[in-house]
Amino acid sequence: MPYEFNASDLDASMLYMEKHMSTCLLQNRKYEWEAMQQMCCSIQYGGKITQEEDRALFFTYGYLFIREDIFSGNFMFNQQPMEYNYMIPDFPDHTSYINFINSMPDQDNPLVFGLNPSADLTASLNASRAMVATLIDT
Question: Could you tell me if 1 and 51 are in contact, meaning their C-beta atoms sit under 8 angstroms apart?
Fold first, then answer.
């Protein structure tokens, strides 16, 4: 089921995580990963999810992507080897980050999100149908 996520959802989640991490750093406490998962996946984004199966799937993604392991040097977001491996870079300069971003593929492989490769075909077909419907309406 499609849900209407927007930039304010992302902003609220990022602000919460930034404040949480800053507070933990200042108080010399460990990050509370479970609290961050709950806040982002159950409240800020998850509050819009109405189907129980969708909520469980979304929380699974949150568990995979919001955890301490993402800061290890060998962590990759995709769990299997692909033509491009998604990771959090750690470079000493701005230019290296720009080069890294420019090397990213224009279109993500559905396997990164745990989806079947045919999900790409389905998304393309839906986009084509929407474009044709818009052209017909125009």
Answer: yes
Distance CA 108, CA 102 (A): 14
CA distance 1 to 54: 8
pLDDT digits (tens, 9 = 90+) for 99-123: 999 998 888 888 777 778 788 888 8
Which tens digit of pLDDT belongs to each residue from 2-43? 788 888 888 989 999 999 999 999 999 999 999 999 999 888
Rounded CA gap, 90 and 97, in Å?
A: 8
16, 39 in Cβ contact below 8 A? yes
Report residue 40: phi and psi, to 5°.
Answer: -80, -45
Q: Please count the other Cβ atoms lying within 10 Å of the Cβ belonging to residue 50.
A: 9
3 secondary structure, DSSP code: -
Residue 49 phi, psi dihedral angles, 5° rounding: -85, 125
**pTM, rounded to two decimals:** 0.64
Residues 6+ apart with CB under 8 A from 68: 31, 33
58 CB neighbour count, 10 Å cutoff: 19
Q: What is the mean pLDDT of residues 65-78?
A: 81
